[in-house]
Design a protein that fits this description.
alpha/beta, 8-stranded parallel barrel, 3-stranded antiparallel β-sheet, 17 helices, 13 strands, 41% helix
């Protein structure tokens, strides 16, 4: 009799995934604080995932474990800078009481129910309290209380005919700003030709504006941007030494794309050089900010804001120079950034639209000579006179379009300052001044719009100045 064949089970043994020991992984956070993975708040865990190229949805106690595993897999699969930011150590098993305390801490800072309305493409920005909630006061670098509201004039740099600085004009410049209701200014920015200035020039300008603005202006913001991090740190230390209100810097130009880790490292080094004054990040859409790990996906403005907030202790706000009010509005409404972080709008063409989405701070070099016009738009909007606000905004549109037809920005803005009544000289070479015929044409066009009228023969129904 034949022996029946042995039945073999077709069941395959499922390979068990190695459990994640959340207490054995240490993560470095802002201020030198180190936490284990289990001690991270839900928002801190989310920031780590975003830093490594993920776009997580809301993290709650029920969804936390999968996200912890995902983060560990990212650390293990990508050879990133984990040696500097993540350490796996042997830790004693946490007691049940410690685990209960950890869960309570996470629950106290977990994402509110309102964030569930957001998709996995958008996350709720963190508040400064959530960012610093588990750190001791000694771990957080103090910063001065700096209040911004209204117009920030991106001031132009005055030069003599030979190209040297003309610091004697600055007192008259300040008086002109005050006449138009401007009490905040930004020094050595793009309009200030900072790329054509030496380090000594920038220091001299910062010192003179800081000295002459005391008791007159509400505050000054000094741009310390430079592709050389060493130079940017030197300028930040000098700004800190002379006591400016705040410093600002743009993304370094190391190519058309830059990772968020490079940007936050750049900003945090500058922040550490000036630990007692706020730092403002000047965002440009010309440079794409990507995640720090493959596939290097581009980040939107809200994600950039969140990552900077977690990594730069003195960060207080961001200047947005794009036209997308949808992205800007999300930063203002999907969280508490409108209360905690300043969102500065840098596009004159979107001025009235910016007011509609809740913008309270605007920055432009046009405010140096058209501050009265833009302050009038704000007043009309606050009074509910939208018809008049639109009329004034249309004048601003027309002025902006005409100025763009003349070419170089700084050249035309300095010509407008001359028409306004303050001669701040010519641009520094290689830029050239506007010709006499072009200035005459510009004056006529502005007079027809009711701006800088000095000739009674010019007919206009809109006398702004």
């Amino acid at each position: 009799m034949a022996t029946p064949p042995v039945k073999r089970s077709r069941k395959t043994t499922k390979q068990k995934e190695t459990p994640v020991d959340a207490d054995s992984i240490k993560v470095d956070l802002v201020g030198g604080k180190r936490k284990s993975l289990s001690q991270l708040t839900n928002d801190e865990l989310k920031a780590q995932l975003i830093k490594h190229g993920e776009k997580p949805g809301p993290i709650t106690d029920s969804t936390r474990k999968p996200y912890e595993k995902l983060l560990v897999r990212k650390w293990q699969s990508n050879s990133m800078d984990c040696t500097n930011s993540v350490t796996i150590v042997t830790s004693p098993t946490a007691t049940s009481a410690e685990k209960r305390n950890t869960n309570q801490n996470r629950a106290s800072t977990s994402t509110p129910l309102t964030s569930k309305r957001l998709t996995n493409k958008v996350f709720r920005p963190v508040t400064q309290n959530e960012l610093n909630g588990n750190l001791k006061p000694s771990d957080i670098k103090a910063s001065k209380q700096f209040v911004m509201e209204g117009l920030v004039a991106d001031v132009l740099t005055p030069f003599h005919r030979n190209g040297e600085l003309n610091l004697s004009v600055i007192p008259h410049y300040i008086n002109l700003l005050l006449t138009d209701g401007i009490t905040l200014c930004h020094v050595c920015g793009d309009a200030g030709e900072y790329k054509s200035l030496t380090i000594d020039d920038r220091k001299a300008l910062m010192q003179e504006w800081a000295k002459l603005s005391k008791g007159k202006l509400q505050g000054i913001i000094c741009n310390v941007s430079c592709d050389s991090l060493t130079t940017a740190i030197e300028l930040a230390r000098y700004a800190h030494h002379i006591g400016v209100s705040a410093i600002s810097c743009t993304c370094p130009n190391y190519g058309p794309k830059i990772t968020i880790a490079t940007l936050t490292t750049y900003l945090s080094n500058i922040s550490n050089a000036a630990p007692n004054i706020p730092l403002i990040y000047n965002h440009s859409e010309r440079i794409i900010i990507t995640s720090s790990a493959e596939p290097f996906t581009s980040l939107n403005i809200e994600e950039i804001l969140n990552c900077i907030a977690f990594n730069v202790p003195t960060f207080c706000g961001l200047q947005y120079n794009g036209y997308n009010l949808c992205d800007y509005g999300l930063c203002k409404t999907s969280g508490v950034h409108s209360k905690t972080y300043y969102m500065i709008l840098g596009k004159d063409e979107q001025f009235l639209g910016g007011l509609a989405v809740g913008c309270t701070v605007f920055q432009s070099c046009m405010y140096s000579y058209l501050g009265k016009l833009f302050n009038s738009i704000i007043d009309c909007f606050k009074l509910g006179n939208i018809h008049e606000a639109r009329r004034l905004q249309n004048i601003a549109y027309t002025v902006s379009r005409k100025l763009n037809s003349y070419g170089q920005d700084v050249t035309i803005h300095k010509a407008m300052m001359t028409l306004r009544g303050l001669d701040i000289g010519i641009p520094r070479a290689p830029l050239k001044e506007l010709s006499g015929d072009m200035i005459t044409k510009l004056k006529t066009e502005m007079a027809q719009l009711g701006i800088f009228i000095s000739d009674t023969a010019v007919q206009s129904t809109n006398n702004i100045y």
